[in-house]
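Quick log. Single chain, no ligands specified.
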Amino acid sequence: MAYIDYYKIMGVDKTATQKEIKDAFRKLARKYHPDLNPNNKDAEEKFKEINEANEVLSKEENRKKYDQYGKDWKHAEEFEKRRQQQQAQEQSYGQGSTGGEFSGQDFSDYFESMFGTGRSSPRQGGSAKFKGQDFNAELHLDFEAAYETHQQILNVNNEKIRLTIPAGVENGQVIKIKDKGGKGINGGPNGNLYITFIIKNHSKFKRNGNNLYADADVDLYTALLGGEVIVDTFKGKAKVQIKPETQSGIKLKLSGKGFPVYKHDGKFGDLILTLQIKLPTSLSEQEITLFKELQKLR
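-> predicted structure:
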C-alpha cells in the first residue's frame, strides 16, 4: 500500500489544531458529498479519501501513530509487540538486539517481513489479520424527517445500504453501522461506518431533548375573560383552555405533543407554549369609548 499524505488531502499543515482539522473536514465533506455530486465518480473517490484522512487525523492517538509509522500506523501496537518478541528471541540466541535500528531496511520492508503483508517470515508462520479502516460520514435531514421513522439508501464504496432512521434522532448524534467500513486485511474484520446526523430546523418550534418550544398568540379579550383558543402543534392544531386574567409570558404545557423519543415507539416529549397577549389594533370609536370607560373604572 502506497503512502498517502492525509494532511495534504485535508489541506492542512502537520501542525494543524484539532479545530482546524474538523473545520477542514466539514468544508470538504459538504463539497464532495455524493448527494451533492450524483454520478460523479471523482467526487465519490475524493469523499472516501476525506473520510479516511479525517478518521486518522481527528483522533489524537491515531494521528500520533500516523506521524510515527506512516502508512502502517494501524499496526503500530502489533509491530512494537512483535519487535519486542523478536528482540527477546535474538537475545536468547546470543544474537543481540536491534536497539530500534533497521540496519538498512526501511520501516515498511521491516514491517512486511514481520507481519506478512508483502513477504512471510519463517518465525511468524502466517499472515496477521487486521481490522479494516473505519469510515465517517454526515447525513443531512430536515426537522420533519427526523420526526418520523423512515428509510434511506446510502451508497458506501459502491454498495447500497438500506438504513432505517428511528424517529427522534438528534442533531449531532452518531450511529455505528458494523462492518460497513474498509475491507479487513488478510481476512481480518471490516471496519465500521459512523454516521453523524446534521438536522436542519426551519420550523417555528425549537427542540430541547424530546420537548418542543414555541410562542402562541392569545387575543386580549380571551386573556382577560378566559376561553378557548386554537394553537399550532408540530403535527396540526390543538384546542387549549385559557384561564381568566392570563398574563403575557405564561407557559402552557401540552403533554405528548413534543418530539418522538428515540427508539421508543409511541412515546413523545411535551410541547411548551409561551403565551403572547396580542393587543387589538384599528379600534373603532365605540371601542375607544369603552376602553376609556374601563380606564376610569381602574
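Residues 47 and 144 are 27 Å apart (CA to CA).
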